[in-house]
Amino acid sequence: MNNDTWTLGGHEFHSRFILGSGKYSLNLIEAAVKDAGAEIITLAVRRANTREHENILDYIPDHVTLLPNTSGARTAEEAVRIARLARELGCGDFVKVEIMRDSKYLLPDNQETIRATEILAKEGFVVMPYMYPDLNVARDLVNAGAASVMPLASPIGSNKGLATKEFIQILIDEIDLPIIVDAGIGKPSQACEAMEMGAAAIMANTALATAGNLPLMASAFKDAIEAGRNAYLAGLGRVLTRGAAASDPLTGFLRD
Amino acid sequence: MENQFFVDSEYLSEKALEKKHKLETDPSSRTNHMEYMPGMEQIDSDICEKVMSQVASYDYQTYTEKDVKAALEHRTCSVEDFKALLSPAAEPFLEQMAERARWETSKHFGNTVYLFTPLYIANYCENYCVYCGFNCYNHINRMKLNMEQIEKEMKVIADSGMEEILILTGESRGKSGVDYIGEACKLAKKYFRMVGLEIYPVNSDEYRYLHECGADYVTVFQETYDTDKYETLHLMGHKRVWPYRFNAQERALMGGMRGVGFSALLGLSDFHKDALASALHVYYLQRKYPHAEMSLSCPRLRPIINNDKINPLDVHEKQLCQIICAYRIFLPYVGITVSSRESASFRNGIVKIAATKVSAGVSTGIGDHESKYSGKDDGTETGDEQFEINDGRSFETMYEDITEEGLQPVLNDYVYV
């Protein structure tokens, strides 16, 4: 492992692959974490809020940081209550704010997300808001105390890839917090592309859950994310849009 | 072939029999089923018109193989595509529909299947719905649990591991009023993460009260969207009022419930039209209340006590599967419940394609969970069942069976906020 680490809420991470957990069998979680090399795993508080009989928390290895999400929240107030419940359940201080007023596409409500982020950051949470990629909203989230910004690539579960690519690039260019691309990443090549653009990390769930071989797909994502990150660090070569470059500079005639 | 629903009980008085026969044979003796009764809240809504105008113009015989193929090729399923998938022309494409449905299910729900159990707390009923075991003219053991008995039942169910409960009553405001149901919800909230209701339709302020008591999901079966047929099946009582029932889900959402469930009882009328209406009811209401969670159930008619001949007519398992696949392709984000009315083998198969929620450890009787769950029978009285169930698997068995199918059983996906 190289020294290319990143930091969130005072924690240092090597892996840039955040794993979702809500759509596949619990007994695959450990294998997925291992093969993905993941150090952060998300879980729905509403799913973890269970009595006995196979609590998802029992399947997550100890060295992995839990990232509880507030799915099910329709307002900032509901998200805040769910985040507090996560803390009570022993899920730590990280929270991924997800607020949806839409049950069909599960698109995030940016305004409510800003409000929840502000409240939770003040309460000492490491707030990672899931959002629709809008630069003004991202700036508001920074001011509200977010620890990262998590723009969606395309609708959750759609596996449609980087539909919002141009707007995510703007966030990467303009926002000083880690930009974590979340939702809609359907295959490793798309994860790789987002990393080449300069994303800090990738979050995926459905792409793995719907794969024929989940651990193998987890491993493929790991490799793709590392490849994309390395390409970003190496500095991508330029891509020529038309014809070839003149080997003699066009301005070579200039003398003084 | 039609179902023969009318059964006379020897326990009915001559006067009662006379009234029953009159209701059955003389339509003029019945009230107007499209007219609200006093006390029923009327809301301003265009959902019914939107749904019913589509249903009225739906001629499913006109759809062809070409329409079905096109529907399966489209990235998103339009209302027209859905109509094609529900039509007889789609029958030869059942396997392709199942494949597409499975893909949509896995995108939205992964491989998870939710488990719940129903708890009937009373079976008194003021309606005469000719196909239902609880109907007021059917001679069955009637019972209403008191709070102590309800709590005992809930403890037994909660001890089995179940975390979601659906509270049901017969439709009797007199015997099981809103206050009584509210108290049951408060108890349920102590033992369960999610409390759903399947009771008679009420007004929005009453839904709000029940929500405050802990209920968060309301299911109302429309039974059939064919108003003329509905009139011949629901001969007496509040349930006779078709539009009040149709608008129940919307009133529940106005009352603050998180989600609502819908269904036609397949086998009562033309299932193509009833399936279309059920799905469009969800579709249009979701557009108006985009935050709400929605689910569809797919019950077929079952035999009842004193009438074991009742059956779902032309809705065979194949047609049921076609309906469920079409629902899933048209409404990929919606929960689909398949109850214990269906066989274990059907339910094992359909959870791999499209169903996301199944009941287990089911009794449709009153106060018999302890004897059914623990084998203990202390001789206490119980109330009779609403209908005969088919799949009698316990919670544990269902949990194991789902796991064996390669799926992940989920007991709770819910937080009350």
Which architecture of chain A does the CATH hierarchy give at level 2?
Answer: Alpha-Beta Barrel
By secondary-structure content and strand pairing, the structural class of chain A works out as alpha/beta
- The CATH topology of chain A comes to TIM Barrel
Tell me the distance between the termini of chain B. Answer: 49 Å
Overall pLDDT level of chain A? 89
Number of strand elements of chain A: 10
Q: Low-confidence segments of chain A, ≥5 residues, pLDDT <50?
A: none
The share of residues in helices of chain B is 25-40%
Radius of gyration of chain B: 21 Å
SSE string of chain B, helices as H and strands as E: HHHHHEEHEHEHEHEHHEHEHEHEHHE
The CATH topology of chain B is given as: TIM Barrel
Low-pLDDT segments, ≥5 res of chain B: none
Strand percent estimate of chain A: 5-15%
| C-alpha geometry of chain A | globular
Which outline of chain B best applies? Answer: globular
From the helix content, strand content and strand pairing of chain B, which structural class follows? alpha/beta
CATH classification class of chain B: Alpha Beta
How many distinct domains of chain B?
A: 1
CATH first level of chain A? Alpha Beta
GO molecular function (chain B): 2-iminoacetate synthase activity; 4 iron, 4 sulfur cluster binding; iron ion binding
Keywords (chain B): 4Fe-4S, Iron, Iron-sulfur, Lyase, Metal-binding, S-adenosyl-L-methionine
Cofactor (chain B): [4Fe-4S] cluster
Enzyme class (chain B): lyase
